[in-house]
């Protein structure tokens, strides 16, 4: 309860949208970095190393600039940009601010270099290698220009020999960070590719373990899990469901007369046609060689039987062409409604008995247990 006000404040400042929240959190971290730089600059002004008025103006512009970045992202304007996080503009702004600080600090100017490196490291985890190369060129050129100007206009505070040493340091460190950014980007790309390949492999494995390879329907193991889930749901809700076993009549004769390839074609055609005529909430699975199991949720036997008979009528009109053979298809079905307190196995046994009765009566019909 004590943390609720903090969470409300965080939601107000960062929003609750995950991507936008991450962008604003990134701006927040950059603002903290520059706020620390503002404190350090004002310390140097306090001890007399830097001009107080100029440092005050620099501090105000720096904080206002970061506040503007926050407003652009928080208000949604940045969504229109290729980089909604405005990472590169933030880096360029921070580097420009650091270059101005370098020009103001005089004897304390070496303190700017760690801040520059933090800005570059901050960007290398987000920006692309190409962006980092351009940012690095900008940083080297900007600091080179500032050092040259100060060496010419204030040689006592900024001796040319010292500034040359500082420039060589910047010209070495900054491109080095750019190179590291490229390596890091390649590692991130490789990790993303590996995650994608792993996700695809897991999806294929899941598909193989839950789907029948021939018909594409849920296999027996997966269907058992689905029926168990439906049983639990109905136990809690008090609703009922029905199970129907559908068996292709004389499939063995089709295999003997036309070959197993033709029998496989019949199985595939029956699966596809049956799926077109069952309810969207129902689940059809391959249960055995030529047997399918239909799970009909939230229904009773009277309604389920009517729907099941319509499916059988549609399948009776099916003609499967394979090679020179055209095979007519009929199915027999056994239907049972799950009773309260009954095990799923018992419901299935009643459906099996009803299927056998339908077969005994000549097939091509549905019998309810």
What would a concise description of this structure say?
With 369 residues, this protein is an alpha+beta fold. It has helices at residues 4-14, 18-46, 52-74, 87-105, 112-124, 129-153, 160-210, 220-237, 251-258, 260-277, 301-316, 344-360, and strands at residues 241-248, 283-286, 291-297, 319-322, 325-328, 331-337, 366-368. Helix 2 runs parallel beside helix 4 and helix 9 packs across helix 10 (260-277).
Written description of the protein model:
There is one protein chain. The model has no long low-confidence stretch (mean pLDDT 89). The longest helix has 51 residues. Helices cover 67% and strands 10% of the residues. Helix 4 runs parallel beside helix 6. The two termini are 57 Å apart. A hairpin with a 4-residue loop joins strand 2 and strand 3. A five-stranded mixed beta sheet has the order 2-3-1-6-7, sandwiched between helices. The chain folds into two domains: 199 residues, no CATH class; 149 residues, Reverse transcriptase/Diguanylate cyclase domain (Alpha-Beta Plaits, 2-Layer Sandwich), CATH 3.30.70.270. It has 369 residues and is α+β, with helices and mostly antiparallel strands. The radius of gyration is 37 Å and the shape is elongated. It contains twelve helices and seven strands.
